[in-house]
Amino acid sequence: MRRLLLLRMLLALCFCVSVNAGTKQNQNEQKSSPEKDGLLQLNKGNFNAALKKHKQLLVHFYSPLSGESHRLLALFEGAAEGLQGSGVKAAVLDVSKEKDLAEELNATGLPTIKLYLSGDKYNPDVCPVPQSSNSILTWLKRRAGSAADLVTDLSQSEASEELTVVGFFKELNHEYVQVYYAAALSLPDVNFAVTQDDEVISKYGLTHDIILLLKKSKLIQAYKMMPQTSKEQLVVFITVYQMDPVTEYTGKTAAQILSSPVLSHALLFVSRSSGDFARIHSAFSSAAEAFRMKILFVWVNVDEPRNGRLMEYFRVRDFEAPLVRMVNLTDHVTYHLPSDTLDVESIRRFCRSYLEGEAKAKMQSEPPPEGWDEQPVKELVGMNLEEVAFNPHRTVFVLFYLPYSQASRTLFPLWEELAEATKEREDVVIARIDASANDINMSMQGSYPSLCLFPALHAERVVLYSGERKLEDLMKFLDREMEKAKKDRAVVNHVLYGSVQHDCTVSF
Ligand SMILES: *[C@@H]1O[C@H](CO)[C@@H](O)[C@H](O)[C@H]1NC(C)=O
Ligand SMILES: *[C@@H]1O[C@H](CO)[C@@H](O)[C@H](O)[C@H]1NC(C)=O
Ligand SMILES: *[C@@H]1O[C@H](CO)[C@@H](O)[C@H](O)[C@H]1NC(C)=O
User: Fold this and answer.
1) Which of 13, 157, 306, 477 can pair with 164 through a Cys bridge, CB separation 3.0 to 4.6 Å?
2) Nearest by Cα to 166 from 241, 76, 70, 113
3) What are the residue boundaries of the Thioredoxin domain, all occurrences included (predicted)?
């Protein structure tokens, strides 16, 4: 879930320009016509009838305000054109307008494309996140028929600029082939072929029941099928080797990077125009090969203004480059390569120590600003957050904010009001912390801005506020939690900070 949030956020950043352009248009076009540009417009009133009428109903659940949704909608419209006259009916459902229906259909999460078959509302097939209109069509084709083209002459696949996956099987009715087809269905953006031609295989000096990745007349990698090989393993193998050992982070590659099944990423932040770029990039690339399938290697050009947000996320300033950061996308902990000499050996050592669990997580804190505790709203930093928040005598209400986020900034006046309203109360502290400049040393999930209460008498407990963002509601919450903390005190044992799952969970 957290990863999806990150993915969504970064995709939103990449596509924000086009969204802004598109949102207005969408709003103007919100008419109730049931069909527009060949797309059935679904709503609560017509969904069941549409389901009944169309044996194959392909529905794009979208939300006009999401950047990723906007990208998908464009692809979906392209695919819908290709579906005209076929047995598949393309439809869209605006989940922001049709909230009840979306909820009933369990389609409230990320934008998705689902195929409903024979009027079955409960078991739609979910289309893998597509990279193009064509991949939606390919997915439909593969699920309807054979998932890979049978080829005898491989010369074309071999010469292709794009990656082609070729399965070489002795018998086409073998279980391996089913696993292979299942992988093809999950990866509609990739070309798949099947061959039984012995010549092909002898050319590469390999045996049968093997998967080959070919690109520009070159064998990139081979994978020997084993009885225990699962579809998932095959998908990881193909998606990893589909990418180069090192990928530059750009608007184009972001989606691929963030949807990679490899959840540890090594990021090299470097200036392309710097004198030692070639040397450092080459060292990074040389180190990458040994960690494929385990760590994804990505480099980020710090000269590129569009990478600003990503750098902010990793708290890298351009003058600090070159440097390497590791991020574990499961828990979002980042690690810093503790060396000024970015050579192959130090990068390798760093990756090994990370994989062995020996790397030390990077923590970062701004120094406490001058007069940080003199204003009504106290300005905290990573260094003093714990010290201030976990106070046995004071209840501390903290706003975790991102300075560049409009959603965060709109809460500032409310926070001032709250501080004003509680200023006579010795046992209450109202504070805020810039979460983009300070690593928060807590196990957190969810998104910023986040309002977290640290009740007095109840050291190391954190309560996430999720109510209305109004002064009155905040005050009620504060009083209620303070009462509760007093009562709970009797029964709570001392829990070790860091080893407990906090109620309050924040991060990207
Ligand atoms: C939605 O999910 C709930 C809980 O998993 C399930 O009971 C329900 O049948 C689902 N509805 C549909 C339309 O799939
Ligand atoms: C990444 O984080 C998860 C959750 O904390 C952990 O289980 C996993 O071992 C970490 N991966 C590595 C390579 O450290
Ligand atoms: C983060 O918390 C852990 C566990 O309490 C502690 O060992 C570590 O020193 C803390 N790190 C920082 C930078 O505060």
Assistant:
1) 157
2) 241
3) 355-483
Do both 158 and 208 map to the same domain?
yes
* CATH number of the domain where residue 458 is located: 3.40.30.10
Pair (93, 175) in one structural domain: no
Residues 125 and 173 in one domain: no
Which range of 145-159, 289-303, 313-327 scores highest in mean pLDDT? It is 289-303
* Range from 14-18, 242-246, 281-285 that averages highest in pLDDT: 281-285
Number of domains in the chain: 4
**Claim to verify: residue 162 and residue 235 sit in the same structural domain:** yes
Query: Which residues form the domain of 406?
Result: 378-489
The answer, as to whether pTM is greater than 0.85, is no
Q: Cα Rg for the chain, rounded, in angstroms?
A: 27
Asked if 432 and 399 count as a contact pair (C-beta separation under 8 A), the reply is yes
Which ligand ends up closest to the CA of 495?
3
The answer on 407 and 350 residing in a single domain is no
DSSP-based helix, strand, coil % in the chain, nearest 5: 40, 20, 40
Q: In what order do the strands lie in the sheet with 296-301?
A: 246-248, 296-301, 264-270, 323-328, 333-336
Q: Are strands 39-41 and 35-36 parallel, antiparallel or unpaired?
A: antiparallel
Ligand in closest contact with the CA of 116:
1
Residues 283 and 344 in one domain: yes
Ligand 3, residues 441, 444, 460: which to mutate, most atoms within 8 A of Cβ?
Answer: 441
The values of phi and psi at residue 114, to 5°, are: -125, 145
